[in-house]
């Protein structure tokens, strides 16, 4: 019997070492001492956990090794109660680690990855699992996309892509256009949308991307988010939070948006869910340090009701 999921997340873990309370950005030859530290998994772990906490049945096609970092990531996975059926455990190290210098307004990373296995875990996951949607944590325009497309089309699976661009791609490139055109949902951030379209105005950027993909949401941090569907663009303000750490906030926005979309909610509410889940994720270290559930989102939706009623709260 095939495994059945609402959404299948593609990609691997990382272990994020998060340094906070730093007096300044680290400089060569000087010791920079922070006042806070945490260690959490990141990358594909973040959307997998965020969607799972929002009540979706999540399958995560991820690769792990026999090393300490992989074991730490798997411990976190088991504490969350995530499904492990699509994991591939390799008999070699598969270390993936990032050290984050985190400031309220932004952060910087130092990263190391062992070489990823080929083929990736998704190659064995797709034939044995059924899912409504496949979530890719970045714009995919290489052979991996070709690997997916035939199976996705045969199974009627909807493709969702986050931004996370490599280099400076443009929709003037036929490969980039083709990648976005394969999506049912595309979720870049503001910088990525501007890079792709060459358009500084996010309303216009959303319209341009909306000619390629049926549903587009552009994440703009504390300035909220823009959405485009059927040629109509709307803006939704962010919720009023003071960010402690923005690591993983974009992934959490995408998770909230996808959860609302899978529940057939209209674009405005999808943007609200994204803003709530992404905004609340900044209240603790790492993308999943703050527990955000459906009940949490329902409570915060009242904020948007108050806006519509003219309430300034």
Features:
alpha/beta, disordered C terminus, 14 strands, single chain, 4-stranded mixed β-sheet, globular
Describe this structure in words.
This protein has an eight-stranded mixed β-sheet with strand order 4-1-9-10-11-12-13-14, sandwiched between helices. The chain has a single domain, classed as UDP-N-acetylmuramoyl-L-alanine:D-glutamate ligase (3-Layer(aba) Sandwich), CATH 3.40.1190. The C terminus is likely disordered. The chain is globular and about 50 Å long. It is α/β, with parallel strands linked by helices. The relative contact order is 0.14. The longest helix is centred in the C-terminal third of the chain and has 15 residues. The protein contains ten helices and 14 strands. Helix content is 36%, strand content 25%.
Radius of gyration: 19 Å
Count the DSSP helices.
10
- Tell me the major beta sheet: 8 strands, mixed
By DSSP, the count of extended strands is 14
User: How far apart, in Å, are the first and last alpha carbons?
Assistant: 51 Å
DSSP strand (E) fraction?
Answer: 25-35%
How many discrete structural domains? 1
Low-pLDDT runs of 5+ residues are 309-313
Strand order within the widest sheet?
4-1-9-10-11-12-13-14
Range of helix content: 25-40%
Order of helices and strands: EEEHEEHEEEHEHEHEHHEEEHHH
- CATH topology (level 3) name: UDP-N-acetylmuramoyl-L-alanine:D-glutamate ligase
CATH architecture: 3-Layer(aba) Sandwich
Can you tell me the CATH superfamily?
Answer: Ribokinase
Shape summary: globular
By oligomeric state, this entry counts as single chain
Which structural category fits the helices and strands? alpha/beta
Q: Given this structure, which CATH class is correct?
A: Alpha Beta
Rounded mean pLDDT is 91
């Amino acid at each position: 019997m095939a495994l059945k999921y609402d959404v299948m997340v593609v990609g691997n873990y990382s272990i994020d070492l998060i340094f906070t309370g730093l007096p300044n950005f680290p400089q060569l030859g000087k010791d920079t001492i922070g006042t806070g530290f945490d260690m959490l998994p990141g990358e594909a772990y973040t959307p997998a956990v965020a969607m799972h906490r929002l009540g979706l049945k999540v399958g995560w096609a991820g690769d792990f090794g026999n090393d300490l970092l992989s074991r730490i990531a798997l411990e976190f996975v088991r504490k969350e109660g995530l499904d492990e059926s699509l994991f591939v455990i390799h008999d070699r190290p598969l270390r993936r680690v990032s050290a984050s210098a985190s400031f309220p307004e932004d952060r910087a990373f130092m990263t190391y990855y062992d070489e990823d296995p080929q083929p990736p875990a998704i190659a064995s996951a797709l034939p044995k699992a059924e899912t409504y949607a496949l979530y890719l944590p970045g714009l995919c325009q290489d052979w991996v996309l070709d690997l997916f497309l035939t199976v996705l089309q045969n199974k009627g699976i909807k493709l969702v892509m986050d931004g996370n661009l490599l280099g400076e791609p443009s929709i003037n490139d036929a490969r980039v256009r083709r990648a976005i055109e394969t999506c049912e949902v595309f979720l870049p951030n503001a910088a990525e949308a501007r890079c792709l379209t060459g358009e500084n105005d996010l309303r216009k950027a959303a319209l341009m991307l909306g000619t390629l993909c049926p549903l587009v949401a552009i994440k703009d941090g504390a300035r909220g988010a823009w959405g485009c569907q059927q040629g109509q663009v709307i803006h939704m303000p962010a919720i009023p939070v003071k960010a402690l750490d923005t690591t993983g906030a974009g992934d959490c926005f995408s998770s909230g948006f996808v959860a609302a979309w899978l529940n057939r909610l209209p674009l405005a509410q999808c943007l609200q869910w994204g803003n709530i889940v992404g905004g609340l994720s900044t209240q603790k270290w790492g993308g999943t340090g703050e527990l955000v559930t459906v009940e949490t989102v329902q409570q915060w939706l009242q904020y948007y009701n108050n806006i519509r009623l003219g309430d300034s709260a």
